[in-house]
Amino acid sequence: MIPQKRAVTINDISGMGRCSVTVACPVLSAAGIETSVLPTALLSTHTGGFSEYSFLDLTDEMSKIMKHWQSLGRTFDAIYSGYLGSVAQIEKVNEFIDIFKDDNTFIMVDPVMGDAGRFYAGFTEEYIDGMRKLCGRADIIVPNITEALFLLNKEYKDGPYTEEYIKEIMKEISSFGCKRIVLTGVCFDNENVGASCFDAENGAFSTFLAPRIEGFYHGTGDVFASTLLSALLNNKTLAESTKIAVDFTEDSIIRTRNAKTDTRYGVIFEQELPALVRKLGL
Ligand code: PXL
Fold it and tell me: What's the DSSP call for residue 4?
């Protein structure tokens, strides 16, 4: 029997509004991966589209959790960081990598900072600097176009984009030290949108697109990243994993559009999990 893989997600707990751990845990679990949680903050909801949400910073608690885990001698096949929310928390992730990374640990950083050319609430330039360095330590990063351009200190522009422009962004980002990049929000026309993957080791580049569904669907970055990691940990190639993540995200969005639910509460990904499990061959 192949030993079960173990991942840890370093992410916030937004109690309501499917994103962060309420997406990462179910998706990774469905993909057969044991998943631990190092929580960064506890919120009533995510910060997009809600006002007066509660927010409890857990930076100090993170140190205590790390200390306990270190005493247990537990290791991880994958470390996946998502929403961090402060420079101090980026530092905690660096510490976590220093302690828990061994030769076989795969590091995925989703540099969650913003979307549609704008920062999410509370992010700063100093945060971008820290995130740039953290990205340099990752095996794979999963920015959207907005985050990629923040990292490169370039001005945001709306799509459609040319393939050359997308390739150039990814190549430039790889100069920070991370060799595999999956860029979301890629579009070459107004009809389709998806993701491109780039491996700087061999120059391989592919794009996978799906029909664009109008509207803003919260949490889809987390759905995409969690699915990508699930596929990679199930030994799918970078290109296969990118396609699986594009399709899963698209199918979840279609379900949500058809159900006409309030998109602030995230997308209906749960009912797509059986199809994902089949696609992963589990
Ligand atoms: O899905 C990204 C995300 C995660 N966590 C929190 C957020 C957001 C985006 O707004 O606010 C708390």
Answer: P
Cβ of 47 less than 6 Å from ligand 1 = yes
pLDDT digit string, tens, across residues 225-247: 999 999 999 999 999 999 999 99
Range with the lowest mean pLDDT among 17-31, 82-96, 112-126, 264-278?
112-126
Nearest CA to ligand 1 atom 8: 46
pTM of the model: 0.98
Report the C-alpha gap between 138 and 157 in whole angstroms.
26
Looking from the CA of residue 14, the nearest atom of ligand 1 is 12
Q: If you average pLDDT over residues 157-172, what whole number do you get? A: 97
**Ligand 1 lined by 219 (C-beta under 6 Å):** yes
Instruction: Evaluate: CB of 112 within 6 angstroms of ligand 1.
Output: yes
Neighbours of 122 (CB within 10 A): 10
* Residues contacting 123, CB < 8 A, separation 6+: 113, 114
Tokens of 23: 């997406």
Dihedral (Cα; 250, 254, 256, 257), 10-degree rounding: 130
